[in-house]
Design goal:
With 158 residues, the chain is α+β, with helices and mostly antiparallel strands. The chain is globular, with a radius of gyration of 16 Å. The protein has four helices and seven strands; from the N terminus they run E-H-E-E-H-E-E-H-H-E-E. Helix content is 32%, strand content 28%. Strand 6 and strand 7 form a beta hairpin. Bound molecules: adenosine-5'-triphosphate and magnesium ion. Residues 51, 55-56, 59, 83, 85-88, 96, 101-103, 108, 113-119, 142 line the site of adenosine-5'-triphosphate.
Length: 158
């Protein structure tokens, strides 16, 4: 179905505010006000963004900022979610999208998870012709980016 990503992202972030407050995490929203329609399975997209947002909170210390950005970039929309958490060592950055991969198993055990979230995100984004990638600096923070091809002519064809 058609989803307008701006309002959709605001709703998703709203639903995470209670959990964020418990960890004193502040969401910073840099979300374009322009209509940003993508044709996508909304439940699956919810699963993807749920996981990326949960990761940003799970792997961050108390008091951090999590910044959610939505912008238009040519024929794509780009979503990014940035945290000020523990970061991901360079040698692990290509592996986090693999099924069941978790950085530092001993440390990860204390934080719940199966290592599937980003593998599912990658599948969905690729199935829609988008890309997903990470930029991260160990002990500084992590940004997950993904793109989706967008269309502005929702229901406006002649
Ligand atoms: P699941 O999402 O299945 O509950 P998970 O969060 O461990 O479990 P993924 O979401 O696929 O699995 O993430 C894979 C691994 O990448 C995580 O275990 C963690 O080590 C690392 N990781 C993911 N996001 C971040 C982040 N924002 N900061 C630091 N490390 C991260
Ligand atoms: Mg996860």
């Amino acid at each position: 179905s058609w989803v307008d990503l701006g309002p959709y992202l605001h709703d998703m972030i709203d639903r995470h505010e209670i959990i964020a407050k418990e960890k004193d995490i502040h969401f910073i929203r840099k979300i374009t006000k322009h209509a940003t329609f993508v044709e996508i399975d909304q439940d699956k997209l919810t699963q993807v963004i749920d996981n990326i947002l949960s990761n940003a909170m799970k792997y961050s210390p108390e008091g951090g900022d999590v910044t959610i950005t939505l912008l238009h970039q040519g024929h794509n929309v780009r979503v990014s979610i940035s945290d000020q958490g523990m970061g991901i060592p360079k040698e692990s950055q290509t592996k986090i999208f693999d099924r069941f991969y978790r950085v530092d198993k001993a440390r990860a055990r204390s934080v719940g998870g199966t290592g599937l979230g980003l593998a599912i995100a990658k599948e969905l984004v690729h199935a829609h012709g988008g890309e997903i990638w990470v930029e991260s600096k160990y002990k500084v923070g992590t940004t997950i980016y993904f793109t989706l091809p967008y269309s502005t002519f929702k229901g406006e064809e002649a």
